[in-house]
Structure formats: structure tokens, C-alpha cells
Amino acid sequence: MQGVIPRPDVAEILQEHFVALAADADDPEPAVIELANKLEGATMLPFVIFTDAEGQFLDGYSGVVTPPYLLRTLNKLVGTAS
Question: Domain limits at 54?
Fold first, then answer.
């Protein structure tokens, strides 16, 4: 997401609605592997996974995405899809 987070429109929705966590891709915990396996076609890092407060998979992607794609995903998850 390099070059995406500094964008005010992306940063605002992330700060208001999400909590970011990082996981070690070289030695992931079983729960991280379980979530990553839900990403269809995941072939490259980074994996970005969205869960609810209970850790249930909601959405995600693998690899680099464009700011408009990320914004659409974030807005869909917070219920403000445009």
C-alpha cells in the first residue's frame, strides 16, 4: 500500500473505522494462516485481510492495489459504497 496511506481520503477512512495489525509472513500463527487461506487467488505479498471484531473474515486481497480499489473496498466494508 506504499503511496496509498499518505492520501488523506484513504488515511481518514482507515483511522476512523479500522485497526491495522501486522503478522509475520515468515512464521505466521495458525489464525493468520486460516485467514490467508480465505483469499482466493492469493499469490503474492502483501496480503491485506479485513475481519470483524471477532476475527471473522470479511474481505481481502493480495499484492499491490490502486488507491481507488482500496477506497472502494474500505467504503464497502463500512457500508458507504458509492
Answer: 8-77
Query: Which residues 6+ apart lie within 8 Å of 52 measured at CB?
Result: 58
Helical segments of 1-82, H only: 8-17, 30-36, 67-78
Phi, psi of 37 (to 5 degrees): -65, -15
Q: Is the pTM of this model over 0.85?
A: no
**Separation CA 63–CA 43 (nearest Å):** 8
User: 8-58, pLDDT tens digit by residue?
Assistant: 888 888 888 888 877 777 777 888 788 878 888 777 778 888 888 888 888
User: What is d(CA 62, CA 52) in angstroms, rounded to the nearest whole number?
Assistant: 19
Asked, for residue 2, whether it belongs to a domain, the answer is no
